[in-house]
Write a structure and sequence with these properties.
Elements: E1 12-14, H1 32-51, E2 56-61, H2 65-80, E3 84-85, E4 94-99, H3 104-123, E5 128-133, H4 139-148, E6 154-157, H5 164-174, E7 178-179, E8 188-190, E9 201-205, E10 207-208, H6 219-223, E11 227-228, H7 231-243, E12 248-252, H8 269-277, E13 284-288, H9 297-305, E14 312-314, H10 322-328, H11 334-347, E15 352-359, H12 366-379, E16 383-388, H13 406-429, E17 435-443, E18 451-455, E19 460-463, E20 473-481, E21 485-492
Parallel strand pairs: 2-3, 2-4, 4-5, 5-6, 6-7, 9-12, 12-13, 14-15, 15-16, 19-21
Antiparallel strand pairs: 1-8, 10-11, 17-18, 17-20, 18-19, 20-21
Helix pairs in contact: 1-5, 8-9, 9-11, 12-13
Length: 495
């Protein structure tokens, strides 16, 4: 793992903007992060002196790219506290499980994994097990961890990630388990150490939270209301990444198009993207995720005229039925979505377009589902991330009439995948023989004889490569394709 320019040793809480509710900040709290960090470093030094080695930390991530970015901060803070990162839980003195709550399956996987640590804790009572992220941001899950998982020492939600050293210090000082209730409107934490998992691809969060309240989605409840980072902080971070040789930088937000609307950021997302594009260097900028109702022509125009912004757009559709979109509280129609896509492709004929689809939403009729299939035929997505609807406790959709039987959901899901596989194959076949720029990720996990990478459109490419190609752009031509990947050869060495 590689580390970006050594950041400050502790996170600093930014003052809330006008219209935001500040968290409770007790007297002297400004100095507490640094003091907690020093106490944790002292504990680590004592461990090293006694054991002849530093304490070790293992960070496991479930979920989305924002969770991955949060885990890089957690790993960075662990290192700042004196821990050495390791790759196995049975080697660790501290286990941190960063969880996802977007679907029930993700929660069950995380809980199952946490359950496996019971035996590690029994063998080594001094092991600290921490569970954080979206799952403990839900009060019922926080209570479940407290009651049913007595070997979990510390649990906190997404709002408290920047306070990790303080929370761990408190848990160790008090000698009792610590469960942190969600903060409704946390202050923005800047300056956290980051241990990046790659030396050439990077996540940069531009905002947190969501105000859209789609009826199926738990995100606004576990990540809070929208909070934008300052324009200056984002520019500084991206400049530093480019100067350090990062080639592929993805801007993250639950709805990046809402950036700056919570006041104080100084600009909206298209203006931010245009300013980032002016940073000199050889790199690609991406962003996700966009809400179709906010995907403006201004944003598309910035992309089309940019030097560094990838001609790739992830635009979740969710359903092709206006009635289901209404029940989902998506606030656009299928016709409006098609109009947005048409303008994107007019300005960027080489656009790679991906989307999300939810199958089997409450009340979805066969006609509604057929409308979704028709949208696939008309839009012809390059990539599709499809999911069977999963009720989330606390969301309006969980209590809706017309819940779809699992067998019906699965049958529709299979039909959707079959259609998209056909479309994906046709879209990829159109790229055969064309020179494409690929950022090489290294030896393929699926086939050690090949190297793999990503095109500007974020499609997977496999080719014969060399160690010198890793982290570099190579020119690639596809000789064959399937619905999900391209296979071919380099035509030029890495640059």
């Amino acid at each position: 793992m590689q580390e970006h320019n050594q950041p400050p040793a502790a996170c600093a809480a930014r003052e809330p903007r006008a219209g935001q509710t500040p968290g409770r900040v007790p007297a002297g709290a400004e100095a507490e992060p640094a003091a907690a960090l020093e106490r944790m470093r002292a504990r680590s030094a004592a461990h090293r002196a006694a054991a002849g080695a530093p304490p070790r930390a293992y960070v496991l991530t479930f979920g989305c790219q924002q969770n991955e970015a949060d885990s890089e901060r957690l790993a960075g803070m662990a290192e700042a506290m004196g821990y050495e990162l390791c790759g196995r839980p049975d080697e660790a003195d501290l286990i941190v499980v960063n969880t996802c709550a977007i679907r029930e399956h993700a929660e069950k996987r995380a809980l199952s994994t946490v359950g496996q640590y019971k035996h590690l804790k029994a063998r080594r009572p001094g092991l600290i097990v921490a569970v954080c992220g979206c799952m403990p941001s839900q009060p019922h899950r926080l209570e479940e961890l407290k009651r049913r998982y007595p070997y979990v020492d510390l649990a906190f939600g997404t709002a408290s990630v920047g306070r990790f050293p303080q929370l761990l210090d408190e848990r160790l000082a008090r000698g009792r388990r610590l469960f942190v209730p969600p903060e409704e409107q946390p202050p923005m934490s800047e300056g956290c150490p980051v241990r990046r998992s790659s030396s050439y691809r990077a996540w940069v969060s531009v905002m947190y939270g969501c105000n859209n309240f789609c009826s199926y989605c738990i995100v606004p409840y576990v990540r809070g209301r929208e909070r934008s980072r300052s324009r200056e902080a984002i520019l500084d971070e991206v400049r530093g990444l480019v100067q350090s040789g990062y080639r592929d930088i993805t801007l993250l937000g639950q709805n990046v198009n809402s950036y700056g609307r919570d006041a104080g950021a100084g600009c909206g997302f298209p203006a931010l993207l245009a300013e980032l594009d002016r940073i000199p260097g050889d790199y690609l900028l991406r962003f996700m995720t966009s809400h179709p109702k906010d995907a403006s022509r201004e944003l598309v125009n910035v992309m089309a005229s940019s030097a560094h912004v990838a001609h790739q757009f992830h635009l979740p559709l969710q359903s092709g039925s206006d009635e289901i979109l209404r029940r989902m509280n998506r606030r656009y129609t299928a016709a409006q979505y098609l109009e947005t896509v048409a303008y994107m492709r007019e300005r960027m004929p080489d656009l790679t377009l991906s989307s999300d689809i939810i199958v089997g939403f409450p009340g979805e009729t066969e006609a509604d589902f057929e409308a979704t299939l028709e949208m696939l035929r008309r839009v012809r997505f390059d990539l599709l991330y499809s999911f069977i609807y999963s009720p989330r406790k606390g969301t309006p959709a969980a209590g809706m009439q017309g819940q779809i039987p699992r067998a019906v959901q699965q049958e529709r899901f299979d039909r959707l995948l079959a259609l998209q596989k056909q479309i994906g194959q046709e879209r990829n076949d159109a790229l055969l023989g064309r020179p494409l720029r690929v950022l090489c990720d290294g030896v393929s996990k699926a086939n050690p004889a090949l190297y793999s990478g990503r095109t500007e459109g974020n499609k997977i490419a496999f080719f014969e490569g060399s160690p010198a190609d890793v982290g570099q752009f190579v020119t690639f031509e596809a000789d064959r394709a399937d619905a999900f990947a391209l296979y071919g050869h380099k035509t030029e060495p890495g640059t």
